[in-house]
Design goal:
The protein is mainly alpha-helical. It folds into 2 domains: 38 residues, no CATH class; 140 residues, Four Helix Bundle (Hemerythrin (Met), subunit A). The chain contains 8 helices and 2 strands. Strands 1-2 form a two-stranded antiparallel sheet. Helix 3 runs antiparallel to helix 8 and helix 4 runs antiparallel to helix 5. It is elongated and about 60 Å long. The two termini are 30 Å apart.
Length: 185
Amino acid sequence: MNDAELAAALGVSRTPVREALQILEMQGLVQMFPGKDTRVTKVDQENIMKLYAPLAALHSLAAETAALLIQPEHIQHLHEINEAFAKSVEEQDLYQAIEYDENFHNMIIDISDNPYIASFSSSLQMHIRRYKYLFFQKLPLEESQSAAQEHREIIHALEAHDSENAARLMKSNLLRSLEQFQQSR
């Protein structure tokens, strides 16, 4: 990427583009070569294993906390998101399925009302998102459909205010993705 070309394409000066690229470099998403160009960093499959474990722990904590705070309107919205996720999986619209999956998990994080979980999770998600599309393309349809069933079980645990089960199911849901990733390599 060339910052001057990006600035021209976006209709802004080079300064905000360079600042944005510096932030992306600090996050490990790009590597800058001053006076030359900026490159998107390569996807290192070994790092996904290091990313998923803390993400699973954070989401598990979010589910545990959300189970105590959840309201009926949250339950309804989670069901709606999950049904849209299941439909996207069935139609093999993987990009949309990934979006709904993230929305489902992010809503539970929002319900947990803990800005630290949200912040740390968001940081990890930036890196994991790079792998997701490639990974989901390799999964058999029935594996992706099982995620929708796992989401239903999480919703039922949340609805029952069963924080221990909600946490366990959430962690299992995320770690299953890691296990499937390892098996697909």
